[in-house]
Specification:
139 residues; four-stranded antiparallel sheet; 35% helix
């Protein structure tokens, strides 16, 4: 009897199918933009926000205080902050960073800039000696 078909390797076909599907499964989330605050923000812009900056984004405040580190000269970041309606409150000398106050609605626009490396929330910090002493009754 003459065999007109060859033996099919089902495991190879299954692996190729899974590889094909996983390629699309990884590519689709990269193309979707996230619109949690009304502005289209890319995944890259959200990854530049620290946890405290993300909290400021969702806080409902009109203006937020931030610290921005720059990828290159901080003058580029200063001009972008001013263009977005923000105000630079401090320029750091030892690092490429600035402190600024910016409208919360423009925070993601600033984060999407190629000159911005990372954005942190600028919150008040206290020294441990300024905190009340820890006691068991405070638990």
């Amino acid at each position: 009897m003459l065999m007109l078909y060859r033996r099919v390797n089902f495991s190879a076909i299954a692996l190729l199918t899974m590889l094909f599907i996983s390629t699309f499964a990884m590519a689709i989330p990269l193309t979707i933009s996230i619109s949690s605050t009304g502005a289209n923000a890319t995944v890259d812009a959200l990854s530049k926000l620290s946890t405290t900056a993300k909290e400021l984004l969702n806080s409902g405040q009109e203006t937020v205080n931030i610290i921005v580190t720059a990828t290159d000269a901080k003058e580029n970041v200063i001009s972008e902050v001013n263009a977005l309606g923000g105000k630079v409150t401090r320029t750091y000398e030892s690092i490429e960073a600035i402190a600024a106050s910016i409208p919360a609605e423009n925070l993601l626009k600033l984060a999407s800039s190629p000159h911005v490396k990372r954005i942190f929330g600028d919150n008040l910090r206290y020294l441990a000696s300024a905190m009340p002493p820890f006691t068991y009754s405070s638990i």
